[in-house]
Amino acid sequence: MTTLAEQWGIHPQQFWLRGERPAEPVRFEEETGMWTVYGHEEAVALLGDPKTFSSAHVNELFPIEMEASMSEGNLLDMDPPDHRKLRNLVSKAFSAKVVADLEPRIAALTHELLDAAVDGGRLELVNDLAYPLPVIVIAELLGLPASDRELFRGWVDVMFSETTQLSLNDDKEKMLAEFAAQAEGMAPMLDYLRAHAVERRKNPREDLISGLVRAEVDGARLNDNEVVNFATVLLVAGHVTTTMLLGNTTLCLDAHPDQRARIRADRSTLPAAIEESLRFLTPFASLARATTADVELGGQRIPADQLVMTWLSAANRDPRRFADADLFDATRDPNPHLGFGRGVHFCVGAPLARLEGRIAVDILLDRFPDLHVDPELRPTFMPSPNMTGVRTLPMRVA
Question: Is 310 helix (H, G, I), strand (E, B) or coil?
Fold first, then answer.
């Protein structure tokens, strides 16, 4: 059986997408100097124990010392209780009601983007819809000009440009140079967000950045670094996942026309297809954690102060948890995938990503009954081994 990964050239690091199985659910990788978690049960246990498998401790073990200003206010680098305090600041902005109220705007944007995109029967799905739709939505929530979206795209490309897996065995000077280059590429984004934060302190509005500069945690206002790093996470995570989700779902339905036909006939089945897409091609494929104590996981004894890479993408293909794990099944139920993570770091924007995905795919099915991948132009995928998603997806609408 030829897999989609083989057909379209998804990053070779993710061997499990080619039908191969990890020898063990947890193991130490000599070539990287880190532990890896591939199993679903083991990943759930790890993500449910932030005290032992810490996010904050990762930076402390990283071979290159990071400036504190780069991690202040970064939800991804925090553990409870600080993480919960900061997360609560934006949880209301992504509540079920707030997200549901965005449906008309998302639908209108989808139609506007598609009206402007189709040219000679061709559509580049990522550039024309999957990227601009979620970035406009999150930019509007943050209070940023949606017209700056090409700036955001360039900065995100820098953040996820690395094509090889991190290894603690790499030459430190090489790692330092790569890290410095990435930091230099991200500096304009941080300066951009800092300027908006400073402006909101003078002239607050009804947007998320204004909410952050007004917010207090334990009686103290967030400083500019905290606001900027928090806003960076919201801006980047707020659109990258949905961009890949939309492209991946469209690609999967193209590869399974019988399932696409069933969904077109019964739109109530579309949410399940979105969930299966998140399992089958998991956008953020991995997460890093660091042990704070000796711990047993998956039959292995992991010492304290070890970096652990958790491959959500592999856990979502674990045959111990998912029957026919290598098959795309839009009717899969139950589907306990880890596409949005699990535990305290479960993606705060998951309801918005699901809504954007459902609305956009629904409209695509309505407007383009014959939409299919352009046979003359291959899709391309994100170059980072830590991500699974189409980067370009040329399509024909007839």
Answer: strand
Q: Report d(CA 133, CA 130) in Å as an integer.
A: 6
Answer for the pair 44, 318: CB distance below 8 angstroms, yes or no.
Answer: no
Select from 335, 39, 72 the least CA-distant residue to 190: 72
CA dist 189 → 32, 67, 194 (Å) = 30, 17, 8
- Which whole-number Å values give the CA distances from 284 to 63, 259, 347, 377, in the listed order? 23, 25, 11, 25
* Domain limits for position 146: 4-396
CATH of the domain at 298: 1.10.630.10
Among the listed ranges 19-33, 64-78, 188-202, 236-250, which one has the minimum average pLDDT value?
Answer: 64-78
- Does residue 72 contact residue 99 with C-beta atoms inside 8 Å? no
Q: Of 241, 255, 240, 250, nearest to 5 (Cα)? A: 255
First-to-last CA distance in the chain? 28
Look at strands 34-37 and 390-392 and give their pairing. Answer: unpaired
With a CB cutoff of 8 Å and minimum separation 6, the contacts of 199 are none
Q: For 140-182, how does the pLDDT look when each residue is reduced to its tens digit (9 = 90+)?
A: 999 999 999 989 888 888 777 776 777 888 777 777 777 777 7
- Give the number of domains in the chain: 1
Cis peptide before 81 (omega within 30 of 0): yes
Q: Decide if 58 contacts 337 (C-beta within 8 A).
A: no
- DSSP-derived letter for residue 344 is G
**d(C-alpha 344, C-alpha 312), whole Å:** 15
